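Structure ticket #2291
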Amino acid sequence: MVESDNISTLLAAVLDDVHGSIVPPIVQTSLFAFDNYQAFEDRMAGRTNTAIYTRVQNPTVAAFEGLMAKAEKGEAAVGFASGIAAITSTLLAFLKPGDRVACVEHVYPDTFKFMEQMLRPFGIETTYHTASAFEDDPDLLKGVKIAYLESPSSVIFVPVDLAKVAGHAARHGTLTMIDNSWATPVFQNPLTLGIDIVLHSASKYISGHSDTVAGVVVSSHALVGKIRDLTLPLLGAKLAPFEAFLLVRGMRTLNARMMQHQSTANLFIDRLASLPQVRKINSPGANHVPGLTGRSGLMSIEFDDSVDIPKFSDALQHFRLGVSWGGFESLILPAKVGLAQAGEQNSMQKFGVSPQLVRLSLGLEDPEDLWADFSAALSQSAA
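Resolution: structure written out below.
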């Protein structure tokens, strides 16, 4: 879990010089001036590390980065303008033509698109493997530069034994990356399991309010330093001060929100199990794999053919149709629509995703209201 005392201590340090404010200020500036020539020269020569330009450094952004590093038990963090910016900037910082990437199946569609439409034309090959292949084949990562993981994976939510994969990767000198957006630092700390780099679409649970688009990467000083020195300034996908301010707000309630998401998810899973229309529920919980200590509110359900998915979706009142997740509001995403843009190789047919699958993001509304809405819509959806 996120250690709230650490967050409070860090915030107190950030706020020491802002006249007792309990909220970090928004430092809305593009550049920072220097008091004298020597200070300017020292900074430009790398002898100091004071802020110089918001594209690479900003105090409000630094406050959020510090919180994320603490939460994920890492040494350093770097923020980005979106989750995909965090993913692509990190991959490009460590890959070159001729390198190979091993990626988990059912990866986030835009990550897949980047690997196929951007990396492959530049001579970087990506292969896709099941979670069990990553865990059970000690030689899968031989000759692989980066192992790209999600635990659990997108859409069907298969978890990975991260410590086991990290052990295989270490023997082959493979760098490991994971998208930890589903579990958050509250329910999973991959760095403590041997993973090298953790990233988040901070737009999701980290923000928690569906009003921010952002990403963040957490790792060691050395690995974050390479990203910060190379792809952050040169690709320019920096995190803005106002978004960082909103993310700090989100971090302060992350524990409480994740506990509520988990409670609602547990209620749904208990009741879904008795429904004859439900073929399968995809939602790993605590201890499903080592290091996973809880369940978020994002799951998928495979219905049998008696359920008319469009009719079911339209009958819902509290659940809205939408592509994102992690906020207050509850959402539904039918797989047939949500995966249509994923590309031929990552298609539903290739990876066995049923057109009767729907993804649910269970929000923070009253759980009984959500269940009543879900049940009523299901009763109206008979094909």
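Closing remark: The chain has a mean pLDDT of 92.
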